Amino acid sequence: MIAAIKKLTWTDYMEFGFFIVLALTPLLWFGNGALITGGDTDFPLDPLRRMYERIFAWNPNFLSGADHSLDIATLFFSAVEALPYLITHNLVTSEKLSFIFWFGMSGAAMWFLAGVLFPGKRLFRILATTFYMFNFFQFSNWEEARIGQLSATVMLPVVLAGYVSYVRGKITIAQYICVCAIGSIIGMGLGVQPPEIVVFLIFYGIYTVLELAVRRFFVLRSFIRRVVALATPFIVFIGVNMVWILPEANFIRSSSYTDANTVKAVFDLNALLSWGSEYSSFLNNFILAGHTAFYDSWQGTSYLPIIQHLLLSNIWYAFELLIPLTAFAALLVGRGRVVAYVAVGAILSIFLSKGIHPPFGLFYTSLARSIPGMWTIRAPWDKFGLLTMFSYSVLIGITGSFAITFLAERIEKQLHGRIKQNILKAGALAICSIGIITLCYPLLLGGGFPYPHGGLPGKHVTIPKYVSDAAKWVNQQNGQFRIVPMPDTQASIYRWGYASPLDVTLREFTKPVLNREYGQGEAPPHPIFILYDRLAGAIYKKEYNEASALGGLLGVRYYLQRNDIVYNFYSSNGDDPNAMARRLSRIPGVHLTRRFGAWDFYENDNAIRHTYAASSVMVDRVGMRKTDFAMANGSKNAVYFFSPLNRRDRRSLQPVIGNEQQYKNRDTTYLSIVNRIPTSEQIDIYALHPYVLVFGDNYSPGWHLYAGRPGAFDILFGRVKPLSDTLLVNGYANGWVVRDTNIKKLTIFYEPQVLVVAGALVSLMCLVFVGLFLCVDSMMNRVSSKCL
What we know:
Elements: H1 2-6, H2 10-23, E1 35-36, H3 47-53, E2 58-59, E3 66-67, H4 75-88, H5 91-117, H6 122-133, H7 136-143, H8 147-167, H9 173-186, H10 194-214, H11 220-240, H12 242-254, H13 260-267, H14 269-276, H15 282-286, E4 297-298, E5 301-302, H16 305-311, H17 314-320, H18 322-328, H19 330-333, H20 337-353, H21 361-370, H22 380-414, H23 421-439, H24 441-444, E6 460-461, H25 465-475, E7 482-486, E8 492-493, E9 499-500, H26 504-508, H27 527-540, H28 544-553, E10 556-562, H29 577-585, E11 590-596, E12 599-604, E13 611-614, E14 616-619, H30 626-634, E15 638-641, H31 647-657, E16 670-677, E17 680-686, E18 691-695, E19 703-707, H32 712-716, E20 727-729, E21 733-738, E22 745-750, H33 753-787
Parallel strand pairs: 7-10, 14-15
Antiparallel strand pairs: 1-6, 2-3, 4-5, 8-9, 10-12, 11-12, 13-18, 16-17, 17-22, 18-21, 19-22, 20-21
Helix pairs in contact: 2-5, 3-4, 4-5, 5-6, 5-8, 6-22, 6-23, 7-22, 8-9, 8-11, 8-22, 9-11, 9-33, 12-33, 18-22, 20-22, 22-23, 27-28, 28-30
C-alpha cells in the first residue's frame, strides 16, 4: 500500500483532488442552514430512529400500521444517514455528509470501472467519470433523492468492473466475489424499486445472449469462466440481500402483488405510465431529458423552473444535442466489443425509455405483456435512463479522449513543439470537463431543490421548535394510541415550507398516525381506510355523535389541529383553523388539552385501549351502521365483529360468546403490556373466563398470538403454534379467541419478521463466506508467489 502511494505522480494527485472537489458539489445545494426535505426527498428528522425502524417488517406508525418489508432494503442507505448523525448530532450536517457520500460514490464507481476498461487512459477515465456525475439523469435522481436509483447508479459500475477484471484474468474468483458482495451491499436500495431490478434483469439477459452469441468457446475452460463470470453477480446479490428479499417476496405474495390486475389497480399503472411517457420522446431521450417533471407544472408554475427554462431554450437545447452526437461518434473512433456492447445498450435503453410515447407506443405495450415483470415499470425513463447515462459516459469518454489526443498531437506538430503535448491535453481536458458540467449546471447549483416560487413550496426547510416539542410530548406518553391530524388533506403543505405526501407527524411521532393515504401503493387496501373516510366525513358533515363513536372505536386519543397548514392549496373547502376548531370541540368527549405553537391537541376521552381483553362481544350480521358505533361509544371494553367477517368465523365464535349479542364474564380480566417492539407485544393477563383479545394495530393475517414468550427462532423452526386464528375485529383490528384461562403470558408476534431473521442469517453467512474465501485465496496466492 505504501509502495503504491509512493509511485503516485503529481498528475495522480491532481486527478484525485479534482474528483474530491466534484464530490463536494452537494455543499452548493444547501442554504441558510435549512434541511433539504419534502416531496419524495425523504430525509429523516431522526436518522437513528429511521435506522431502527428499518430492521422490522412492520411499521406501527405509518397509516397506523402497515407492512414495510420493502423498507428493509434501505438498511444500508439509512446507515449512511444515521452514522453522521450519531457523530455530529446535527441534521443538516448529517444530510450534507450523506449526499456527499452518494454523489462522490457514483463518481468513484465510474472511475473504478473506467480504469478497468482502459487501464492507463487518464483522459478517458476523467471524461467518463465527469459525465457520469453531471447529466440530466443524475439531476432527476437527486431532484427526489431516489434511493433505488442512487443505489443502482453506484452498484452498476462496481459490479461491471469486477466482471471485466475477472474475465481478463486480472483478479481471482475470490476477489471477484468480494467485489460483487460490495456492490450488492451498496445496491440494497434496489429493493424499494422492484421495477429497477426488472430493468437490470432484462439487460443482464441481453448481455448474456450477446456474450454467448458473439464469442466462440473453443476451449472448455474459457466457456466455464464466462458462465461463472455471468452467474456470480446474480448469485452473490441474492445471497447478500436475503435479509430483505425473503420478507419482500412474502409481502408481494401475501398482498396479491404478483397478480398484474391487482398491481395495476393499486398502483394505477396505466395512468402513471401515460404521465411518465408524456415527454419521453426520442429527441428528449437522446439528451437524457425525458423526465416528465422537467416540463410539468402546477397551475402554470413549473416544478423545476431552472431546468424547464433551460430545456425550452432552442439554443441551449441545440448545445445539449452535442451529448448524443459525441457519444455515438465513438462508433467511428473506437474499436472492440466494449464500444459495440455499450452502443447497443444505449440504443435499446433510449427506445425503452420512451415507454408508450408515440411512435411505436403499442410495441412497448406488447413488450410489457410479453416480458415477465415489465408491466410493473410505470415510469420507463426513470428506470431505463440509468443505462442510457451509463452508456453515454463510456462512449463520451472514448470519443473525448480520442479527440483530445488527436488535436493535441496536431497542434504540437503545428507549433513545432513549443507547447508540450501534455499541456495541450490538460487544457483541452479542462475545457471539456467544464463544458460537461456547464451543460448540466442546474445540478451543480442544486436546481433540483428549489426555493418557494409561484405559490409552490420549496425543499429548503427549517423545522419549527414547536413541532419538535409536540413530538417529544407525544412520544413520552405511555402505551399505543392513534393520532388523527386535521384537516383531512391530500398532501401536507405547511406555511413554514414543508411539503410532502408524508406528513411531518409520520417522521416525528412514534405513535400511530392515521391520515389519508396519498398516491398509489403506499400500503395494500385495508378496511381502516374506509373507517377513516367515515370519521373524516362525519367531522366535516358535523355528525358529531357518529364522529365520537368512530373516534372511540379507532382508538384515537388525539386529534391534532394543524393551524400552520396551507388549507386552500388544492381548493377552498372551509378548512380554516377556526372552523375546524369549532368542529372538534363539539365532538362529545373531545376537548382541547395542549397547545404547541400552531399545533392544538384535542384529547378524546372515549378512545378504546390499543390492546385489551373483551368482556362483551357483538356480532353485526348486516354491516356497519351508525347504531353500532353508538354502542361502541358506550363500552371501551367490548369487541365488535363487523363485515367482512365470514360466516364460518362467526360460527366458530358461538361457543365462546354464547349469544351473538354479548358474552358475560363480570369484568374479571386484568391485562398489562410487558414489552413492545414494532413486530411483537408481550402481555401478562389474568382472566376467569374465556375472552377475545383485541390488538389495535391494523389487521393483518401475519399477526399471531402465542402462549408464553417464544422468540423468533422458536416460531421460525415451528417449536410453537398459534393459539387460535387471527380474526378481523372492530372493523380494522386483530382479535383472537382465548379459551384457556390458565395461560397467563401471551405474545403477539408479526410472523413475517421471522423471514427477516432468517434472511439476515443467510446474508451474514454469505458475507462471512466471502471474507473467509478471500482470506484463503490471499494466503494461497502468497504461498504460490513464494514457491515461484
